[in-house]
Amino acid sequence: MPTASISSTQVCAHRSKALSRKVLASLAVSTLSLAIAAPALAQEDPIKVGILHSLSGTMAISESTLKDTMLMLIEQQNEAGGLLGRELEPVVVDPASNWPLFAEKARELLAQEEVDVIFGNWTSVSRKSVLPVVEELNGLLFYPVQYEGEESSENVFYTGAAPNQQAIPAVDYLMNEVGVERWVLAGTDYVYPRTTNKILEAYLKSQGVADEDIMVNYTPFGHSDWQNIVSEIKQFGGAGKKTAVVSTINGDANVPFYRELANQGVEASDIPVVAFSVGEQELSGLDTAPLVGHLAAWNYFMSVDEDVNYDFIDAWYDYTGDDNAVTNDPMEAHYIGFNMWAEAVRKAETTDVDAVKEAIIGVSVPNLTGGYATMMPNHHITKPVLIGEIQDNGQFSVVWQTPSTVAGDAWSDYLEGSRDLISDWRAPLECGNYNVVQGSCGGGSDVASSE
Amino acid sequence: MNSIAGRHWLSALVLLCLVALGLGQAWAQDAGASEAASSDQGPALLSALAESSFRDKEAAIDAIAESGDERARRWLESFAEGKLARVKDSGAIVVVLENRGRNWPVADALTLEPAGEISRRELDRVSINNSLRGYLDSTLALIDLRVDDPAQRLAAARDLLGEVEAEAVDSLSELAAAESDPEVAATLEQAIAIARVEQGDVAAVEALSGSLNGQARAALMQASRSDDVALAEAAQAALAESEQALKLNRAAETLYFGLSLGSVLVLAAIGLAITFGVMGVINMAHGELIMLGAYTTWAMQQLLPGQPGLALLLAIPAGFLVAALVGVAIERGVIQFLKGRPLETLLATFGVSLILQQLVRTLISPLNRTVVTPEWMSGSLVINEALSLTLNRLYVLGFAILVFAALMLVMRRTRLGLEVRAVTQNRAMARSMGIRATRVDILTFALGSGVAGLAGVALSQLTNVGPNLGQNYIIDSFMVVVFGGVGNLWGTLVAGLSLGVINQVLEPWAGAVLAKILVLVFIILFIQKRPRGLFPQKGRAAEG
């Protein structure tokens, strides 16, 4: 198995790097502890932090930077004295973009390595695969990517955006500030775009948009021939009404899509494209000069002009040794998630899963956009929603943002079946899908009636 | 929306430009004199731009455009590029020259002289959005209508299509009447007619009748939904006028899309047609050889910064060589030991493909690499207002045909080609005639692999250059070769092009996902009927 052997040496390299840093850190601390007679770090068992991100296969492109982000955050925490006087130890595994392997690796982390918390996953399908394992073994999972909602698990904390923290505000911006009347909903053919588009379609219709003014289009994963679709979009947009494309096209397929847009002369001032899966990292594989003005909706942009953000970016530059490295929204989500977990551990004075789960609700930590993020009882967090326009340097410039933070909503208000559900993991309710009309808890993390 | 204020300002600006045109030289002297008389108004103009909200920025733009300051154009262009920034402490406005990394080199906006580097933390960017960018474009276009260069005037007139406001129509008409260049005049007339139709002028509909221009058709469509019956009917008639021509253009466009997709399939498959089709080796690492060709393009561009075009041209031989060498290594290292054992070859080369992918991930990066498209390959070739062919795909189409022709020549006209055909038809006989079969194997595999590298060079202009590049093409490549008939290069060409066209014809009504499925179902049925593909090998060669 060549894949496995290479990735494990990679992991080893990281471990030894971390180890040498750890030796240095413990040296420094032990000299310090001589002076002030504080307990030395290395005496107790380290706190184990599991990192479950693909380092090989298709998703490595997105997930490997998140692994590095976690290693950087853990290193910083150790330099600052660890947690509860204990050292943090990262445990990196490689689920290799293989969805069933995610579940196996999660089991390995929880049962064999006995980690105290897991940070991981990118795609929804991998999260769905891990979910039963984390619930069975009562683990903690922090999931950092924007997703389609319609899920709430006692053991998962969703630090990425729910649809009401990304898609709906973006559509509101286009409708009210840009005056868009005609909509193309284009997405990759899998669960996140399908659910998001279902929510958006219901929302647009509730706002009085006619059926013939909505065009829905799905493409396979990694689609690279966009000629026909771009030509169709041009045709659809040439009907004398302001048109916009709402894109849930997944990562990789965006590059040829944007290239085709530019080549066929679709400019942002005519037909703007607002994307929910295109961030700084996706744009780094692309000459963005012809794309200036196309939009993206996120809860964080690298270009946000705040000192806390610049500190984070500088630390990332130092950690990667590359002054052209980029930061993105899921990295911020891990930053928030890690700090929330650390804060909850401090509050609970233990890493015990049940204690941390209880302590973390209501915890507020700074985000990177100059505000605070709070963990809500439904295991989602509060986030500001930012709309940015692509610049010629591959960055976004913020053109609009919500006046205050928005709390994540696990169950969409625009879908039949999920409208009446709420999630509240505090006692006495302790339910992920409580039906306020029937006054009963559905149980489980998912809901069959959402279809 | 701030369009009401915008309209007002735009019309004021149009009037101003026209007055300026009328006064000609006198105006310029006047402006020069007034500038000399007062002290520099630059700081005030720029601060107004930097400090106002998005809604008020249009006024600030107009103030700059009307100032007559010779730096005005440069300021507006920098603003349009999002490169204006204000230093937080001093409030001075600077032009950012390079906005990457920790510290940004800047130039003083007033003197336009370089002013060293400033930390990005110290800068407040002067932000811009789409509607302002559109407004700036028409502002700059109106200024450009006065320049001497007809090409620039034409570009400006095109920018004004669909962007002319009601109040500006009369003054623009005068300008169009005075225009010496017929093409510019015609474009301006069209821009005016669009504006008139937008206001509900039935008489102007005639001027747009039969036009293929997107903006003109958009205006007509809007008019056809109007409550004014006469206008709506006239607009519908005008739209119907161009319907036939439009349909023809769409059909031509679909054909082009199909041929272009087909050419990509042919390029990806043609190397495989040699290694799999002619030699009979199932090489699952074929996709990774394509990927290596694409990475070679990237590497060449890294070696020759600032010359993407030259790097791309040099990447053609380099990509061929790199992929051919790796191909030889695979042949010598793995395939030669598994001769005549297709299942083992399949598994072993699949392993090789995983190793190559992970090697790229570990050594270079799991992230996609940026391959720059040279200037001469960007944009599109305009045939008429409804039909334009994207240049990068046009080049790839041409390249695919060239590669195919070259390969045909090699196979038909050279000694190597002769030997390859001899060895594949009857290995034992060929050897007894004195042909060194092993050497032929190596060379053939190198040729097929090198062609895969060429495909990679071409694909780097169309899609992502990343470790997964090859995976996306391996299935399609096998499909094309099997459909075309194993061992037949012509079959690969015809199969690739026809699959491309079928796919693109199906896509508009079936959607991309279903179109792909339908094509696969079609191939399965076809192979059931004709197991040896479109152009089966005939005679004794077929038995081998």
Automatic annotation (TrEMBL), chain A:
SUPFAM superfamilies hit by this protein: Periplasmic binding protein-like I
One Pfam assignment: Peripla_BP_5
Signal peptide bounds: 1-42
Gene3D superfamilies attached to this UniProt entry: 3.40.50.2300
Keyword terms, alphabetized: Signal
Tree of life domain: Bacteria
Protein name: Urea ABC transporter substrate-binding protein
Originating species: Halomonas litopenaei
Gene it is expressed from: urtA
From TrEMBL, chain B:
Signal peptide interval: 1-28
Keywords assigned by UniProt, alphabetized: Amino-acid transport, Cell membrane, Membrane, Signal, Transmembrane, Transmembrane helix, Transport
Bilayer topology: Multi-pass membrane protein
The organism's place on the tree of life at top rank: Bacteria
Localisation per UniProt entry: Cell inner membrane
UniProt cross-references to Pfam families, sorted A to Z: BPD_transp_2 (PF02653)
Gene: urtB
Membrane-spanning parts: 255-282, 310-330, 342-360, 394-411, 440-459, 479-502, 509-527
Stated name of the protein: Urea ABC transporter permease subunit UrtB
InterPro entries tied to this protein: ABC_transp_permease, ABC_UrtB_bac, BCAA_transport_permease
Similarity comment: family membership: Belongs to the binding-protein-dependent transport system permease family. LivHM subfamily.
